[in-house]
Amino acid sequence: MTNEQDADNPLRERRILLASDGSMPAIAATKKAIDLAVLMDAVVYVTTVPERTPLTILEQMGEQVDDSRYTGQLADGPEVAREYGLLHEVEVRELPMGPGPIVGSILKAANEIQPDMIVLGNSGRGGWERLTLGSVAEGVMRHSPYPVTMTKGWDKDELQDLLAIAKGLMRPSLDFTR
Questions:
Q1: pLDDT per residue as tens digits for the range 78-88
Q2: Predicted structure pTM score
Q3: Are 129 and 31 in contact (CB under 8 A)?
């Protein structure tokens, strides 16, 4: 069966691709992806693309301060999605990607699984990516042949359950090796 035939098969599982780097916009996107998966009876595939752009120590510290205001540490996007999925009886599968251009890697992951939808936050926590806020989200939306849902902003009160999960999956807070 070709990929096109698979996509047109009404019996195939519904799929949502979640791009998550563990940032606050990605945590908001995780909530949206899991909520949609419940409604669609879908499996969530979560991917994180390691950033190739080296960060200075000051950039790394700035990212950690930004994230720790909300979670207390850096969150692991796929782990948070898995745990949140378990709470809502949604199957979450990790789709690991190697380092590379982030937009291209997300689109490659989408082509591999042919999702019914891609969900991502409007910005992430990338060094140079911050200069062009939302450049990843914009690139995915512009080039994806699949529907894209982008979350913008977040309400801390609505994300309390996810933030509690993120706090429970603590990573060392000052890891300058990534």
A1: 999 999 999 99
A2: 0.75
A3: no
